[in-house]
Batch of 4 targets.
Target 1
Amino acid sequence: METGAREWLLPAFRGLGGALFGAEATLMLGVGASLGSTWLLGQAIDGTLPLGPAALAYLAAVGLSAGCTWFARVRIEEVAQQAMLRVKERLFAHVMDHDVALHDEQGAGRLISRVTGDVEAMRALLSEAVLQAPADLALALGLLLILGWVAPSMALVAIASLPAYILLLIVYRRAAPQRLVAAREIAARVSGFYAEHVRALPLLRAFGRLPWLEARSAALSAEKARIDVAAGMTGVHLFNALFAVRSLTLAGMVWVGASQVHQGLLSIGTLLVALDYARKLFEPFIRLQFNLATFERARAGAVRVSELFARPRKVRAPADPQPWPGFQELVLQDIEFAYVEAVPVLRRVSLRLEPGRRVALVGPTGGGKSTIVQLLLRFIDPDQGRVQINGLDLRRLDPEVLRRHIGLVSQGVHLLPGTVAENIGARSDGDALRLLAEVGLAGVLAPGDAIGEGNRVLSRGEAQLVCVARALAGDPELLVLDEATAAMDPDTEARVSELTRRRSVLAIAHRLRLVADYDEIHVVAAGQIVESGDHASLLARGGVYAGLWQAQLASGA
């Protein structure tokens, strides 16, 4: 396993050592019983042991071997499942606690593939190969020793075939990795493609893009089939080659053994014992062939999981977070920020937010307004400059504590399957009813109404109002509205606007009439605040804001 993987894989087995040791010991006992059953069969055939007792002993050995193997493999599977469950839980927590940038870059499909598919590949390797490898090694060594004792000449034939097996495995080991890694990558791409496009199916239908989606899907599926066939055929060729070597080896042993039986140098029972031992000798190699593909998939998965664990977080809670200082003044001072190096999004931005005031950010799309919101919520940290609350840098606060005091309503509507109360996050049904009444949904929705996944379907405006109620549930000291009323009718917009009058608000808006009565309006363009003031003063200036206002009046926006 990769060195980086040990840091998160080995701790997953903490506390499972006893169960694993018991399973391995039981598996070894099964190997010994399997070796003994073949020896008893040979003794019975040669008449060395009475037939009745030998048959009973043989049945007992076979039963013991089967029972031990069954019990051990069940326990090994349980150990592997428990260990990988811990890895999944840790990886999921890592992904959920990571920077927002990770989710933007990786996408839902790729991250789901890491948490589920890659970890599952490692579970298969652990349960089918790694944890059973000691028993396979003991079986191979035991068989060679016994075969060398009972039929040295036949043992030499078996040993002579081992280089061919090793050569085939080396060839496969060199040819398979790239093809198997490519198969995992295309699987992640397909998962991500369908996760993103199925969600956008209504939009694609509305614009008549289903033929385009079908063509893209067919092309991606054809590429996946081609890569999967190439990866699969590598294993098929190795499997056939291994069986060919095995068949030739057994034929050689039959020829040598039959000659020695004819010459009186070997008994028939010993010949049959030697052939059965030789057959069992090849079983670990056959299993290894099957597990090589599993190994490559697991290795590729371990590399990707290690990369995900190793990806540093840019936004971290401080080691000694300061307590929440209250909201008296929130200041952005000389902020500079770039998502991509040398491509600045914000340049020398300074902004002040005070309690009880409503402040709006307006301006052309792509000017940096939403980036300012991400800085306030500490989804990102500035490259230069500081964001301070009451003179305290936000990096001195626990981000979770900060976000509990800021309510966010974004343009995107995100509701999860469950009840209305669960989506709002209210402490009780009474609180949920109060919040629903506050946003004008009393009598329209009840706290226990189920939404999503085949339950009640809300209009976009209703869903956005539920999001507003969610933002108000924690009684935040600052309410951030990022195009929050874009899907609302004028009456609902007016209701939400009335709710904001009693709060400290930072709003991003493209429709200027929605923020015309705000205390302060800042025009953000090309990463800078180019104008600031109230509605009347900005119109009197005749600058960017006045131009936007006249353009929206002319268009009726």
Target 2
Amino acid sequence: MESLWKEVKEEQGIRVKVDNWTNTFKTLYGYKPDISLFLDHTYLIILAKIDKYDIIIGNPPRVVMRSMKNKEYQNFLKKEVLNYHLLEDKDVHLFTQMELATLFFCKCADLYLKREGIIAFVMPRSVLAGTIHHINFRRFRNPPIKLVKIIDLEGVSPLFNMPSCVLIGLKDGTTKYPVLSERYAGELPDRNAEFAEAKAGLSIEVCKYLPPDFSAEPSYYYDKFKVGASIFPRSLYFVDIISRTNSMVAVKTSYEIYRIVKEPWKIVLEGVVEEDFLYATLLAWEIIPFGYIKLHPVILPIKEHFNEYGLLNSNELQRAGFTGAEEWLEEAQEIWRKRRTKKSEKRFPSLLYRLNYNNLLTIQNPTKGYIVLYNATGTNLVSYVVDKPSLSYLKVNGKEVKPRGFIVDVKTWFFETENEMEAYYLCAIFNSEIINGIIKPLQPKGLFGARAIHRRPLYFAIPKFDGNDNMHLKLADIGKECHEKVRAMKFTQKNNIRAEVRKKLNGVTVEINQIVSKILNIKMEGE
């Protein structure tokens, strides 16, 4: 194995260390770590002999912690993240979202950088965006670093596989914002172009960087929205309905789902199941503003139990006389047992454990009449209200089958309420350009633009619905009217229905924006 560290220059008393991060683990001084602890180049190295340097230049791995498969090493990283106060004990649930590069930055500055030394690391640009789990990193307190300059490379292509930046800082200083930022933009002849050649094709904008401010009070609804259930593996639950006889439905693994799932879950299940276990769900990417593209039937071994759902295992289904559902679950369980990974075998001894991961299914409330949905990921925020009392029927050979209920899928955030107007009020706010615009600086970006949404719309002070507030009521009325308009629409496009809906609702959207800007006290562009 080649050396990880390379000493490139030692002159005039200045010691510089550059890492190439592409090789695995042999140190400058001949010490070779136990390779069983270091599976690939993403692993953090602690050298046996530690020297201090005036300058450290690096390009650490851009990998999120959840990608680390070695449990022992993952535990080590978790301790290190806490040691460097990148997360606090109460926030350890955010560990899987952390960028490994942040720990490399802190560890290298701590171990290898002299006092007042310079560190310059290429980093994922997400560390500068609206990522709550990187708030402490942006404070640069452990070790103390004065961030003096940011080179923002988001506008440069082709370059890395994700938007990147360079952070330059001085050890034992204090970071004070705003910080000087140089934004580079332009097309390179190729990603390995020489500097002189690259510079000729790039523009530079000098500006100031301020980190996102999370000090304001979040929405009343911040902790009331939840994420949906993990209906995985999808091929074991998503179905096409073949026929219906009395209270039984003949079903088969959804062809649409079969086409998109990957091995080892590219399987087809067939059976005849009681209607009691036929539910409906929406895939997040099929939610459009105030509507949806397709309702999906799913077979789920659950029953209503007061204000939540209860899971039924094979024995319980058999005792209750639900032989169709029992046979379906038994076959699905056997497929799961044969094809699951070793890790899943330990975490989910039963398929039902996987289905109800983190109780995301059973916490859903069957008695609430309205569900406000919005997408967990994507470039733009979209929202829809599920009116459960008026839930659409599923069509089978010209006949209609009413699903037992609606279950929210994991890629979707939701809020359940009995107040119809509250539901349409929230949906209108989420479909406004105001909320979609103010979350943009907070969204981390990938190759194809902004991606994660999750709780970001709820960082802002969306107030609790007030039935005595005329603006709230007006917004709710508009939201309900928009649902009716979208339901009646005929779409001419297949690939960009969301944009088509927005275009057709443009006049209404302007009114929504005006009301939302007043409710949130946000000035619209041009005001």
Target 3
Amino acid sequence: MNATRNRFVRSFAAVAVVLSAAFACAGEVPQLIPAPRKLVTGEGEFVCKGDVTDQAKFESDAAIPKEGYRLSVAKDGIKVVSYDDAGRFYALETLKQLAVKEGKDGVKVQCIEIEDSPRYSWRGFHLDECRHFFGKETVKSILDLMARYKLNRFHWHLTEDQGWRLDVPGYPELVKYGAVRPASPRHGTWPSSGSKEDAGKLNGVKYGPYYYTEADLKEIVAYAAERHIQVVPEIELPGHVYAALAAYPQFACRPENLAAREPRLVWGIEKDVLCLGNDEAIKFMENVVDWVCKVFPGDVVHIGGDECPQVRWQKCPKCQERIKKEGLGDHHGLQPWITRHFVKFLADRGKRAIGWDEYLLGDIPKSAIGMSWRESRSGAGHELVSGAAAATRGHDVVMTPCSYCYLDYGQGLGGDPFQYIGGRVTLERCYSFDPCAGVPEDAKAHILGGQGNNWTEYTWNEYDLAWKAWPRMLALSEVFWLGEAKPGFADFKKRAAAERSWLVRHGVNCAPVE
């Protein structure tokens, strides 16, 4: 992959301070995104040369909420008060948005008082790199934008039926077979055509091998940490593992189905999943997850758990023996069993498990975090576990329903040149999202926040990835930061239009604000 092709904004540290928020003038209300919780403008401006963030003086106050801050800009100086380093960081990101270029080297900032703190602790951006791979430079660009808009969780989808993107020590076959496809669906194949024949047409073009080394991953983790972003790796199990089974067919219930040693070439769900009666298959996944725990220092690891067909387990002698040995009743008991196993496995390593809502089926420890994406019984047909139901049971939940947060859904733009998987999620729809909607009052404390999901079956490069993510992630960033206190779509839309100008000037292929 050409790392420079269609590359959008890499680093804001060098340029954002003197170029950002050119629309903000003394006496006007600054056009910040996300909007701060409390803002009072004053008379006059602070003027300096060079990096305005170097002019800030810092104080600590234990009474300020986590990630919160007070920012004071006066004619004679800038003061930031925070409880933690994250609050200090976000105050400086706000300051960057406020800064206006003045002459050749000067910067001015309107005198202002801001008090700010986030409504939700989980403010996420998800990227699927299995269907299509974007690479280290694009990921860094995303992290830069996340920092600007105070997003703090990068959910990195790294394993799938269609691709495996991790070079795990001791398992070289994973990238030899799992990180490359001999073909993919044609770009012109539309899921809305209703034609299975069209959906199965392949382009005959080799894709890959694309994957990350351990050094790459650690570099990204460090880059994210500097921006107060935690990377949440996703290692899918027990379904969506076809690329891993292409590398190690012996871990499938029916190894003969993997004779071609290829990942799944078309989009969709694969019936061949991890054989849960095979101790070696489980040991393999334990070794992978154990390595992931060492590479990713955050306190959460995503273990998928979604869309897992159970048809192979019903006839697999090993799986049937596992059911009998563990007293699981029938094949329906296998997924809760493996979920409990890995929830404990992660807990023993100081981590919490998170997974899509299906993985909460059955008796699952309350330490397991749910990620609520479905609004009806869909996927592989598993019973729905809604975010409200999971929170009522005592699980912490990240809300990311597809009808509000799936950015591979159409934006409703006239003449949109890009392809989508289907659906319709407009900018206004994103902004209307309330993560606590329908959740009983006594369970709302379990709603950690939400995230926007960028699935990439129909996203081929950085250019259309940016178009689909922005400006809708601007809307979601304000939802996650302010919650019920957000000022309203009309107000947001004005600020988003101005911010889009900034994004476009900095090379981001941001869709129109409509």
Target 4
Amino acid sequence: MITKFKESAFFFILLFGLSHVMQAQQKFWVFFDERETNAAPAISGETIENRRMLQLQEIQTSDFPLKKTYIDSLQSLDIEIHRQSRWLNAVSAELTPEQKRKLSEISFVKGLREIIVGTCLEARAHIPLEARAHIPLEAQAHDDFKPDLRVDYALKQMGVEGFLFNNLDGTGVNIGVIDVGFYGLEKDPALAHAVESQRIKAVHDYINPAKVNHFDEKETDSDFHGTEVLKAIGGKIESEDILLGISNKASFYLARTDSGKREFRAEEDNWVAAIEWLDSLGVRLVNTSLGYGSGFTDPNESYLPENMDGKTSVISKAATLAVREKGMILVVSAGNEGENPAWQVVSTPGDAYEPITVGASDQHGLKMDYSSIGPDFLPYVKPDVACYALYGTSFAAPLITGYIGALLQLKPDLKSEDIKEVLFKSGDMYPFPNNYVGYGFPNALKSLSILLGQEIIKMSVRIKAKDSYELKDIKGAQVLVFHKTSPTLVNEQFRKEIKKKTFKIERPEGITHTTLVLADRNIEIEWED
């Protein structure tokens, strides 16, 4: 079935070419033509201060609520509204064919869009603390630094010492987390510091709005997922000097938008409502370890891989608006479909250009097999960055969120594009990103140097070769090899241990570019015919 509606600044005619089972009711977004501009904008003083700091328009059209007369008209047709979106100037609702027909005849209804979506949680396996690798930091620092502090492996990979030595721990930064649930949060030793200091500022449950006890009532086995994500952002066990996440002094705003009981269309609506709620409170930095693509309980509701184009899904449009107009910084997990031949690509909203999409790499910097890749039809590279995560990109994204929290502590006026530039230039793949790991894992000391105008960037070399290329005077014990069919599309990756001071690389058939990552330099080979 094809649903058509008028084109506007943010919404485009979508032709899915999908067939699905006809039902008595179908889910739609109903778009309106005007807003209640005489009402007060639904934002806080903190939101306005953020926009003023970022030199954005302080009061925006999308801040105003929907017209009550429009809502009343829909309800008079016995239409049950699920969610209202100020940003989209729309509501989501189940419509019968007769209700759909009547709405198409109403002048203030700008368009209808059928919701064909699916969702797949990035990871739901519980990760006990004893399963994590904790590595002692071996470095000298200022008097406040504890040399016996143990950190999660991914933090060591990203050079967390650079932040710790400078007392950067997310102090004063507000972070939003959109996830499945936060069961066990209050009793988790790694989050006791946040609970005791009252830095869990607000919780909104969009699955069960009447829920009062958000941390001790478990509805499904997935309800701890958000708790694990929060630990990766700012977890710390004070009594054992174990650091799990960098921003352990940040304040947190939590939104539950996904149910572990079943996967259904309303979850994307919930996400849109949650991101609007966080913006209204003045929360700029948001982590979402949820991805939408395939995997709904009803497979007829799922996307196709080609829909991961950064503009098809409503959630990608909301993510784009959040960054471009609201000044928010969104960190999104790439997805765990890398080994699924029927999918493989990143899920939405990680397909949109604006969010910082995070993949998972191994201890060396190669893509984890499960980590989703960037589609070959995108005009930009996804994922943006990657870092070590053994159990899913759900836990790579929050590590980067905690990393960004430290950067915002140092410079609160950083915009999303500023953050991207810092992450990219300090990434181990810079300046040769690819659709497996993006710019790779960032380095804290390099990031701080970039912010201070003293860039420390690994040497990069571009060379041309025909059939083979020989490396000489190699420093380090390994070289990472990414064979590509274009400047960014990886065909093969592998690690080679170096036992001599030279290394010869042969050009495989069909390969146009090869990136070599060494300890002291990155080399991009453009193969000539």
